[in-house]
Amino acid sequence: MSSLVGVWNGVSLMFADFVTIVRGGASEDADARAGGKWYKAYILWLTFPPMAMLFLGKPVWLILAYGVLGAFFMPFLAVTLLWLLNTDRTPAEWRNKLHSNVLMALCALAFVALCVNEVRKAIDAAL
Description:
Elements: H1 2-22, H2 37-55, H3 59-84, H4 98-126
Helix pairs in contact: 1-2, 3-4
């Protein structure tokens, strides 16, 4: 249960913060917090599509859809960390150094390869 609530809350907060910053806002803005519009939008995305798929009698498609979407999360996280930890908005002492950037880029590439593999397998299974 804690994992479910943690993902529901934590990933929604990360998404709200990311969208707010990409749109030129700051992490302190109301839209980047719990209860903000982007937070609520992601909570709805996590809640209602799975319920709709279940009631339509297509739980196999639900599993495939969330497997594919889940495969996109780690590359998204690695690229987002690369971007956020190298911007001038991050204090200089907290920014990534060369070795951290190289390792993070390797992780991002590995996760992209795994993502492509998982998506290919999901498409093959669906066909």
